[in-house]
């Protein structure tokens, strides 16, 4: 959840840390801090600066009173234990200020560890779970004759939980880091080394990276790095070349990452689909080694927006491949004792590949013998290392907290998966397969069209008209019922307007009571088998004086008469329409939040990657 950066080399560490933390602020922004070693090896000291609030607070202070030094660690926090204030901000230091740590994750047994440490005279300053790590490492450091690596290793042997931890000591020109569950990447430069919780923090300096695995430790010094496991055995880890450039992770001229990512969708979708669809033969090639005939049911598991992509997937797979599918929110899946067997294919969907609920649900499914497949964006992420097979969506780095391009790429990947399964299982003939492949191939162009300036301008006007509403309702049917859920989620997370998404036919069983002249109701009523039924639902809203914002296919003037406002979207095959319709939902949410002056890239209380349960 939190962002981590570390540096050792010849540059001023402060510059590297502040710029790296800027790239990671989406991970958490309750507070930020840095620690920079003064004076090099032996007898040195470490200066710590930390501040509550966004990184700008800390950066301002560092600009006014810079810290000099070429070894340092930095952190942006997303609070789990203790309020977001200066004291609870990382880094945390021992009482003598010699050992300094930053931590991402949760130490589950911290209360027991803390009680023990306190009884042995350690004085704690913060309310965090992380501070125990500093004190525990100090104890081990004293026991091991001042061996920092060994101290960290022994301390972690007593820790239960999730961590990406980075440690330094005033008297050693080295950084020691380790990870379990929480991600950590090493960046390798010319005579310099970097550490980060995510790749974007490194891209301005190097594209040579080592993705550390669960249970890895790494020691960084001026003469290079070495990786070991937690038992102290040396490990070989490959240096990989990352092809994202720094520009791809920047805002690229847009006001916000979210808007940039909305506009990146035609490219993201091209990357998702490219090389995988073969219209001539009606085949889909996904480079998946799993045998599509070897399972009898599918369990889709995900959180948030990815879960809604899973709901679209359920519809598509059942329709096309005729396999029973169930979809679970990952945090529920683990604890409901799901019926899983070797004939189950568990599909996890995740942008980050790090969401702890999804990761743990994946482990649960594996435990019962399920085959596992991931629909994942982040290369090298924790999930990808535990899955039997991964279908990368290739949407590129997504920085905006509200997921946009990853969602449409996930939905497109689920469509490809449904087609692949259907073809392999003989439930889809070649003619219909070709028709659907063609529709999928059209997606980048249709989304490009959906982003035409006049359409965007119109959605902006509609958003502004209703921006001061207290509540919103979103309705959709069939394959677009999840689009309504996603529309409501997007709106509430960035504009803070209360919004509900419902299957349109379900409205009369409850939510209809909410309808009055102050309630905008977005109805997704694009071309489909169920369009007439959806329009009946529109009439029900109108009859109760609700304000209807209808999302219609281009040219549908007939149904426009039932609506107060219409958002036209390019005509698309019903099976691919959730992708095109989602773009309208994203823009509506975006311009509503913008009209209300909200910080869409950093919505309150949210974090991009949720690595705590
Ligand atoms: C909403 C959003 C979240 C994520 C959820 C899962 O816009 O981004 O709901 O979809 O936290 O994240 P991943 O896909 O990284 O597992």
What is the fold's blueprint, element by element?
Blueprint: E1 3-8, H1 13-24, E2 31-38, E3 45-52, H2 55-64, E4 71-77, E5 92-93, E6 99-107, H3 110-119, H4 131-143, H5 148-156, E7 161-169, E8 172-180, E9 185-188, E10 193-196, E11 208-211, E12 216-221, E13 224-229, E14 234-235, E15 240-241, H6 257-263, H7 265-273, E16 277-278, E17 283-284, E18 297-302, H8 304-321, E19 325-329, H9 330-333, E20 344-350, H10 356-367, E21 371-376, H11 382-386, E22 389-392, H12 405-424, H13 430-441, H14 443-450, H15 453-466, E23 471-476, H16 481-495, E24 498-503, E25 520-524, H17 531-542, E26 547-553, H18 557-560, E27 565-569, H19 577-595
Helix pairs in contact: 4-5, 7-12, 7-14, 8-12, 8-16, 12-13, 12-19, 14-19, 15-19, 16-19
The structure holds fructose -6-phosphate.
Structure, described:
It is built from 19 helices and 27 strands. It is of the alpha/beta class and 613 residues long. It has an eight-stranded antiparallel β-sheet, with helices on one face. α7 packs antiparallel against α14 (443-450), α8 (304-321) runs parallel beside α12 and α15 (453-466) crosses α19. The radius of gyration is 25 Å and the shape is globular. It starts with a strand and ends in an 18-residue tail after the last helix.
């Amino acid at each position: 959840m939190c962002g981590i950066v570390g540096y050792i080399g010849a540059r001023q560490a402060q510059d590297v840390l502040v710029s790296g933390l800027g790239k990671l602020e989406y991970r958490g922004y309750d507070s930020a801090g840095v620690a920079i070693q003064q004076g090099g090896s032996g007898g040195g000291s470490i200066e710590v600066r930390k501040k509550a609030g966004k990184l700008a607070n800390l950066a301002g202070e560092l600009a006014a009173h810079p810290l000099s030094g070429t070894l340092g660690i930095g952190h942006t926090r997303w609070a789990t234990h203790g309020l977001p204030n200066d004291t609870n901000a990382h880094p945390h230091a021992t009482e003598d200020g010699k050992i300094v740590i930053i931590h991402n994750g949760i130490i589950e047994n911290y209360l027991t560890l803390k009680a023990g440490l306190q009884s042995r005279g350690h004085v704690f300053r913060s309310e965090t779970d992380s501070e125990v790590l500093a004190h525990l490492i100090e104890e081990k450091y004293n026991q091991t004759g001042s061996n920092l690596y060994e101290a960290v290793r022994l301390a972690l042997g007593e820790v239960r939980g999730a961590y990406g931890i980075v440690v330094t000591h005033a008297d050693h020109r080295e950084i020691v880091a380790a990870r379990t569950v929480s991600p950590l990447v090493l960046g390798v430069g010319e005579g310099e080394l970097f550490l980060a919780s995510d790749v974007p923090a490194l891209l301005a300096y190097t594209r040579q990276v080592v993705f550390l695995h669960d249970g890895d430790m790494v020691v960084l010094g001026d003469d290079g790095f070495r990786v070991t496991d937690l038992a102290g055995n040396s490990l070989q880890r490959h240096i990989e070349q990352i092809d994202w450039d720094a520009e791809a992770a920047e805002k690229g001229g847009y006001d916000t990452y979210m808007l940039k990512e909305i506009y990146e969708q035609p490219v993201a979708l091209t990357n998702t689909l490219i090389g995988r669809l073969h219209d001539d033969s009606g085949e889909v090639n996904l480079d998946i080694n799993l045998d599509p005939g070897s399972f009898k049911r599918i369990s889709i598991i995900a959180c948030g927006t990815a879960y809604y992509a899973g709901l679209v997937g359920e519809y598509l797979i059942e329709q096309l491949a005729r396999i029973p599918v169930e979809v679970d929110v990952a945090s529920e899946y683990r604890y409901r004792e799901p019926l899983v067997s070797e004939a189950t294919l568990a599909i996890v969907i995740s942008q980050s590949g790090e969401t702890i609920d999804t990761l743990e649900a994946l482990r649960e499914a594996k435990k019962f013998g399920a085959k596992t497949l991931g629909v994942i964006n982040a290369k090298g992420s924790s999930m990808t290392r535990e899955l039997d097979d991964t279908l990368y969506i290739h949407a590129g780095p997504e920085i905006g907290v509200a997921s946009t391009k990853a969602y449409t790429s996930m939905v497109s990947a689920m469509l490809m998966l449904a087609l692949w399964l259907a073809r392999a299982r003989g439930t889809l003939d070649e003619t219909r397969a070709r028709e659907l492949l063609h529709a999928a191939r059209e997606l980048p162009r249709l989304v490009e069209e959906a982003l035409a300036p006049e359409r965007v301008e119109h959605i902006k006007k509609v958003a502004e008209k209703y921006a001061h509403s207290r509540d919103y309702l979103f309705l959709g049917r069939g394959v677009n019922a999840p689009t309504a859920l996603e529309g409501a989620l997007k709106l509430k997370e960035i504009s803070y307007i209360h919004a509900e998404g419902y299957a349109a036919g379900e409205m009369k069983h409850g939510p209809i009571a909410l309808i009055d002249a102050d309630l905008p109701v977005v109805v997704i009523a694009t071309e489909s088998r169920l369009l007439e039924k959806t329009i009946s639902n529109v009439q029900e809203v109108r009859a109760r004086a609700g304000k209807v914002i209808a999302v219609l296919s281009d040219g549908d003037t007939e149904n426009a008469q039932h609506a107060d406002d219409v958002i036209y979207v390019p005509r698309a095959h019903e099976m691919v329409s959730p992708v095109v319709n989602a773009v309208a939902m994203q823009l509506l949410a975006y311009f509503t939040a913008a009209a209300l002056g909200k910080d869409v890239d950093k919505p309150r209380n949210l974090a991009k990657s949720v690595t705590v349960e």
